[in-house]
């Protein structure tokens, strides 16, 4: 009788072992592209371009990029290894947040992925899983991946463009804040910055307790409050923006666009800082610096007319003041000028 032999099917170690078609065949099913799309994505991958619906004649669009060793590291000083799932989730989160900040609802994503030849296939599959998990886990139920592009390069780069709908409503801009408005925050402030500090530290990731690890997780997989944007628009928000580069820097952007002054309540800021105490004690850091200057939480900073009931998820953290004569737009804390630091892509 012939000898029985066990056939072993080995997973290709890197993308260099696959053709583009083979790699796409591994990605598409993980993006739920084999079946039905969302109601806005009428035609997905397979042709030269996707077809998406714009029922009210208006489309909100934004785009963002993550580049290896600029926006993330594959391995951090504290020993944490960035997974493809992390990068996929974050790519979804930061783009969905930009649509959210306009008071809109995301409908479609397109993804451009650049990979070095030695990128593990499993890492790319995890990235696709992270994109899908981010879309569904963050509550973007009407959104799907409509298509994208795949190429070769020296480092991993993930660019996502997102489309959204206002459903016939006007967008909430940064420029509408008025003197007397209440300044409110939805989401967290400083958590992602605390997580970044932990990643950059020498405190081994395996030594972190649950109270510290939560911040690291929110840096790698942000959780923007996607229900808050449309809710703020419906409640009459006069201005709004995504907090991606820090409360002070983004507050100044809102103030500048609205030709006003933003005044932050120090008691509210202190309450936000107190939540960060576990990480700040461990690292010997000032938690207020994370609250004021830390980005990537992707919460929302919005202004509402005085007397309006704030929608669920928002808490008042300050007010909008009129500019005095010869004054420039600024951010203040209890009436005193604040240094609007924060993250700058070309200064770091």
Work out the radius of gyration: 22 Å
Low-confidence stretches: 1-9, 342-348
Largest sheet: 7 strands, mixed
- What is the mean pLDDT? 90
Strand adjacency order, main sheet: 8-10-7-11-9-12-13
Shape: globular
Structural class: alpha+beta
Q: In sequence order, what are the helices and strands, one letter per element? A: HEEEHEHEEEHHHEHEHHHEEEE
Supply the number of helical segments: 10
**Tally of extended strands?**
13
Beta content: 15-25%
Give the fraction of residues assigned to helices. Answer: 25-40%
Terminal CA distance: 69 Å
Overview of the molecule:
With 348 residues, the chain is of the alpha+beta class. 30% of the residues lie in helices and 22% in strands. The chain contains ten helices and 13 strands. The strands form three sheets. Strands 8-10-7-11-9-12-13 form a seven-stranded mixed beta sheet. It has a four-stranded mixed beta sheet with strand order 3-6-4-5, with helices on one face. The chain has a two-stranded antiparallel ribbon with strand order 1-2. α2 packs parallel to α3. The protein is globular and about 65 Å long.
């Amino acid at each position: 009788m012939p000898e029985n032999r066990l056939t072993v099917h080995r997973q290709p170690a890197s993308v260099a072992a696959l053709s583009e078609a083979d790699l796409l065949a591994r990605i598409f099913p993980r993006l739920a592209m084999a079946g039905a799309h969302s109601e806005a994505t009428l035609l997905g991958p397979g042709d030269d371009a996707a077809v998406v619906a714009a029922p009210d004649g208006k489309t909100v669009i934004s785009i963002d990029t993550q580049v290896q060793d600029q926006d993330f590291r594959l391995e951090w000083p504290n020993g944490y290894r960035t997974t493809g799932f992390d990068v996929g989730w974050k790519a979804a989160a930061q783009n969905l947040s930009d649509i959210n900040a306009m008071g809109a609802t995301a409908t479609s994503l397109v993804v451009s992925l650049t990979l070095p030849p030695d990128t593990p296939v499993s890492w790319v599959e995890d990235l696709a899983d992270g994109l899908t998990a981010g879309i569904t886990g963050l509550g973007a139920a009407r959104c799907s991946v409509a298509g994208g592009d795949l190429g070769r390069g020296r480092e991993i780069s993930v660019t996502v463009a997102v489309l959204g709908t206002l459903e016939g409503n006007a967008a909430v801009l940064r420029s509408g804040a008025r003197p007397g408005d209440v300044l409110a925050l939805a989401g967290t402030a400083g958590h992602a910055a605390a997580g970044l500090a932990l990643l950059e530290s020498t405190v081994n990731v395996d030594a972190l307790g649950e109270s510290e690890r939560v911040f690291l997780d929110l840096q790698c997989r942000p959780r923007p409050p996607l229900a808050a944007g449309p809710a703020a628009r419906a409640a009459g928000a006069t201005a709004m923006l995504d907090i991606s580069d820090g409360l002070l820097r983004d507050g100044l952007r809102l103030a500048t666009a609205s030709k006003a002054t933003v005044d932050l309540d120090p008691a509210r800021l202190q309450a936000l800082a107190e939540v960060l105490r576990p990480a700040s004690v461990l690292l010997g850091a000032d938690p207020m610096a994370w609250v004021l200057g830390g980005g990537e939480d992707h919460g929302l900073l919005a202004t509402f007319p005085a007397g309006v009931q704030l929608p669920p998820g928002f808490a008042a953290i300050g007010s909008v003041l009129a500019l005095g004569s010869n004054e420039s737009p600024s951010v203040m804390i209890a009436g005193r000028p604040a240094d609007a630091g924060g993250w700058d892509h070309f200064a770091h």
